[in-house]
Specification:
The chain is an alpha+beta fold and about 200 residues long. The protein has helices at about 5-15, 30-35, 60-65, 70, 110-115, 120-150, 175-185, and strands at about 80-85, 90-100, 100-105, 160-165, 170, 190-195, 200. The chain has a 4-stranded antiparallel beta sheet with strand order 5-4-6-7, with no helix packed on it. Strands 1-2-3 form a 3-stranded antiparallel beta sheet. Strand 1 (about 80-85) and strand 2 form a beta hairpin.
Length: about 200
């Protein structure tokens, strides 16, 4: 088999496989075709490239309050392209290189400098996503455990008292009611939560 014949066959195989994956938003006909092992009928229904933001991508509100110079120093993974279909003319812009009244086309200087570091290979992204999901599950379990422990604790008991001129602490109710009424008119009370066992000055 000659090289020309070999590459012709390879191009034919590639052409036949092209369009064999449907985009999730594809029409019913194309989804059915792909399910039956056929090609999509409409080119716009073929699965397209997917651009995903990093999980920790900063919100627009945070970016808006920072200068263009500072935004340009953000890690390479944030400098992905976004398509602006509102401006004239339409353009691909950097997702983070911006400030009030100013945007930067993509690739920006940071994207050019770091090259492929802007994007993560799919297998690495899937591994990172899996680890992140596992970590979130661990934290949720920890929060559930701590909530259960807090719910099981006895309700705090608050004791109220006052100090005399010598610094002695007397719990409210120790003296006859009439005597305490007169004392508390001019003496601030203190409180102690039994769980914490600390006295805190409060207004009488």
């Amino acid at each position: 088999m000659s090289d020309d014949t070999f590459w012709a066959e390879q191009r034919a195989i590639a052409a036949s496989e092209r369009g064999s994956h449907a985009d999730p938003s594809a029409c019913g006909t194309c989804l059915s075709n792909v399910g039956a092992g056929k090609r999509v009928e409409h080119d716009e229904c073929a699965q397209r490239a997917t651009l995903l933001e990093a999980p920790d991508h900063p919100d627009y509100e945070l970016l808006a309050g920072v200068s263009l110079e500072e935004n340009s120093k953000l890690p390479a993974r944030f400098h992905i392209p976004v398509f602006d279909d509102c401006g004239k003319p339409n353009a691909w812009l950097c997702a983070v290189c911006q400030e009030e009244g100013q945007v930067v086309g993509w690739p920006c200087a940071t994207a050019v400098k770091h090259g492929t570091k802007v994007f993560s290979p799919q297998h690495r992204a899937e591994t990172a996503a899996k680890k992140q999901a596992e970590r979130i599950a661990q934290l949720e379990d920890e929060v559930t455990r701590l909530r259960a422990e807090l719910a099981a604790l006895p309700a705090p008991v608050v004791e109220t008292a006052f100090r005399d001129g010598l610094g002695n602490v007397w719990p409210v109710g120790h003296f006859p009611a009439e005597t305490e009424t007169l004392i508390l008119k001019t003496t601030p009370t203190i409180q102690r939560t039994v769980r914490i066992s600390e006295w805190t000055e409060v207004t009488s």
